[in-house]
Amino acid sequence: MPDDVMPRTETIRTRADGGVLYATFDAPPLNLIGPELVRDLVALIGHLSGPTPYRAVVFDSADPDFFLPHVDLTKVPEYTAEAAKAGGPGDASLGMLFQRLSRLPVVTIGKLRGRARGAGSEFLLACDVRFAARETAVLGQPEVGFGAPPGAGGVERLARLMGTGRTLEVLLGADDYTADLAERYGWINRAVPDAELDDVVDRFAHRVASFPADAVTATKAAVIRVDAPSDDEIRAAAVVFQHLVREGSVGTRAAWLFQNGLQTRGETERELGRAMAAIPSDLN
Fold it and tell me: How big is the CA angle at 151 (ends 108 and 74), to the nearest 5 degrees?
């Protein structure tokens, strides 16, 4: 096992296996992206930005139903303040935190079981490679249904992966997508049977970790230079998102969803795409 002291965190459990670090989100009851989880992500990303014996990092969830379902809508100022610690007040957004994730020298791999929507999907999009369980994975960008465009890189990264038409379908429809359809659209690398997911991810992660580090790092950096969103794009998206959360219809539409079980382990969270279509139009 590599000789490395990882930061102590409350919501991310880590274990090492050779040159691969496994980072498991464990923030009951739903793995919502709130201030505690963002604080721990800031610490982990900061640690991995420096010299490290790891060559690959696998992100997964301790909750088989929820990877990162979305942000905690009751704590937007608090998690934004935690995100600012990664880069300063001018970069106070999840988008800029995820931008730093995307530029880590290690290869980042998302292993998806359960639901990844909103900023949870945007976290996965900032990872280098994404694998998902065919039977259980659900992806979505529901922000437009709430009343704002995505603000943490979803627009910029999905458009590069999917093209204009499919990105607009995903964003404007604010619906849920299965792993198979997400694979077809380019949202994820591969949908694989749940029983095979661990082996597929482990094989890829350890294969990458076995190759010369300089070659892996230089190749990743070259690809990012060709096809990654700029900091200015990410900052601009965050400004629009934060403005509409404060001033737009997000509050009233979210309030209706809260009355119907948002952020609890019920039907609204399990079928959020369907719930979006049920919000009364007079709340726009």
Answer: 100
> Is 227:85 a contact under the CB 8 Å cutoff?
no
Confirm whether pTM is higher than 0.85: yes
Q: For residue 167, what are its two tokens? A: 């990105």
- pLDDT tens digits, 74-112: 999 999 999 998 877 778 899 999 999 999 999 999 999
Pairing of strands 20-25, 12-17: antiparallel
What residue type is 111 in one-letter code? K
221-257 tens-digit pLDDT:
999 999 899 999 999 999 998 888 888 788 899 999 9
Sorted by where each starts, the structural domains of the chain and their CATH numbers stand as: 12-283 (3.90.226.10)
Q: By percentage, how much of the chain surpasses pLDDT 90?
A: 85
User: Which pLDDT score, from 0 to 100, does residue 1 have?
Assistant: 40
